[in-house]
Amino acid sequence: MMAFQLKDKVPNFKLPAVSGETFSFEDHQKEHQSWHLIVFFRGSWCPVCQEELRELQANKEYFEKENVHLLTISSDKMADLQEFANKEDLTFPVLADENLEAIKAYDVFYHGEDAPYDDHGQHGEPAYFLVNEKGQAMYQQRQTSPFGRPHANELRKIVKYIQKNVK
């Protein structure tokens, strides 16, 4: 089980986006030279995730003003993610990790067949990574259930605090 220390370089990933493109985190970092908030979510079927993604969309302008790009990743099926992203008019990248590549690379908890409790089948659980312009982890939080995740207002506070106090 891999855990990042603060300021560790985070892994690159290439995943299909609901927009139809292949999203490369490394290429995106080079192009934008900004911070990134990578949000792993359970799936388009999860009501808690649906609300979270709506909140992120409502706060997208704030994050961009703070030079933070939002990225979201789920192990959900691409067709389901596309339908939800289109319905909600999500304007940040929504990426499908059906092969669990990013989930494994970021050590996100996966609720698989061997999970200790039943919970809507197999899926990745919520996780959050704030990555600076150098690709270093500046904040991380991993969940093992749908509850306890930070809401958009908390993420705003986290971004502001860390950026203000970065060495």
Helical percent range? 25-40%
Beta-strand segment tally = 9
Supply the helix-strand structural class.
alpha/beta
Strand content: 15-25%
Q: Round the mean pLDDT to the nearest integer and report it.
A: 91
The parts where pLDDT drops under 50 for at least 5 residues are: none
Number of helices: 5
Radius of gyration: 15 Å
- Strand neighbour order, sheet with most strands: 5-4-3-8-9
Give a short account of the largest sheet. 5 strands, mixed
H/E topology pattern: EEHEHEHEHEEEEH
First CA to last CA: what distance? 28 Å
Oligomer: single chain
Approximate shape: globular
Reconstruct the topology from this structure:
Elements: E1 14-16, E2 22-24, H1 25-32, E3 35-40, H2 47-65, E4 68-74, H3 78-88, E5 94-96, H4 101-105, E6 110-111, E7 123-124, E8 127-131, E9 137-142, H5 152-165
Parallel strand pairs: 3-4, 4-5
Antiparallel strand pairs: 1-2, 3-8, 6-7, 8-9
Helix pairs in contact: 2-5
